[in-house]
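Quick one, tokens below:
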């Protein structure tokens, strides 16, 4: 049985100009249920998190400004969404969904957050639609509770995980790996433990070859006992915010490769969805659904 964190507040209504990126959070679970990849019992509604895990990653003053809706207007503009109590609650529940997913992955091998992948959230501020860094918070939860000793974050979103890199830059227990578009946002990138910046128009063959050459070596050298996987589908050629040239089939093979590797090596993996901005919503849903289909085929 797949373990998937999902809450109705993930579908938080936004002003018209901001609604499109949120629609997938409503449509994806409907598609997975419709086709029989999951059942309703696979879904879990996350509660609000213990704030100690939020404060363990994010500066207290920043979090309190979010909670009190007193964020400086310039800082709020960097986030990209109109700041509201509903939006802050949504981010907190997403963080808890990833924490819950950590426990589920330890039990079952894999778990999903149908949102998350908020890798542009720094310790001191948010940006690019990311307020709180869910996988960083999940990593902190595992380490604080002695549930993992060495963690690998595999970020395959088309955009560099700049916030994640900043948060763990001086932490030897968390290895950050980001494979992203060289000329994509963020234009001023942070330094991950390993960054692979791909040139524009990188296609399936080159993308998969680099990944298959890199990931096993990382796992062998770092020896993680837990992996976070950010499975953004904005690597697609059709993505309006990406500059790579991968196909839906290539994206599917990427997910199958990562999850197969975790399964064969018996390393628990928590997956957060990440980005996907193709103009055709059907393409976004199909690409994201492939990640869940791969997990079901491999693990169950």
């Amino acid at each position: 049985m797949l373990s998937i964190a999902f809450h109705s507040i993930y579908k938080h209504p936004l002003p018209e100009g901001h609604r499109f990126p949120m629609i997938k959070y409503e449509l994806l679970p409907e598609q997975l249920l419709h086709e029989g990849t999951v059942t309703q019992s696979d879904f879990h509604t996350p509660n609000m998190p213990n704030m100690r895990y939020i404060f363990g990653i994010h500066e207290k003053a920043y979090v309190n400004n979010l909670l009190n809706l007193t964020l400086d207007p310039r800082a709020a503009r960097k986030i990209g969404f109109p700041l509201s109590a509903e939006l802050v609650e949504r981010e907190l529940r997403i963080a808890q969904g990833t924490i819950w997913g950590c426990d589920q992955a330890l039990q079952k091998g894999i778990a999903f957050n149908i949102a998350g992948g908020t890798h542009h959230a720094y310790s001191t501020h948010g940006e690019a639609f990311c307020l709180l860094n869910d996988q960083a918070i999940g990593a902190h939860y595992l380490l604080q509770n002695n549930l993992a000793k060495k963690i690998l974050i595999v970020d395959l979103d088309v955009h560099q995980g700049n916030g994640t890199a900043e948060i763990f830059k001086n932490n030897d227990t968390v290895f950050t790996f980001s494979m992203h578009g060289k000329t994509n946002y963020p234009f001023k990138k942070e330094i991950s433990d390993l960054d692979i910046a791909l040139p524009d128009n990188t296609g399936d063959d080159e993308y998969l070859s680099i990944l298959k050459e890199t990931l096993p070596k990382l796992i062998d050298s770092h020896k993680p006992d837990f992996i976070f996987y950010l499975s953004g589908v904005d690597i697609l050629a059709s993505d309006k915010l990406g500059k790579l040239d991968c196909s839906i089939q290539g994206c599917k093979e990427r997910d199958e490769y990562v999850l197969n590797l975790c399964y064969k090596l018996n390393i628990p993996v928590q997956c957060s969805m990440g980005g996907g901005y193709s103009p055709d919503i059907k393409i976004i849903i199909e690409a994201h659904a492939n990640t869940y289909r791969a997990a079901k085929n491999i693990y169950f």
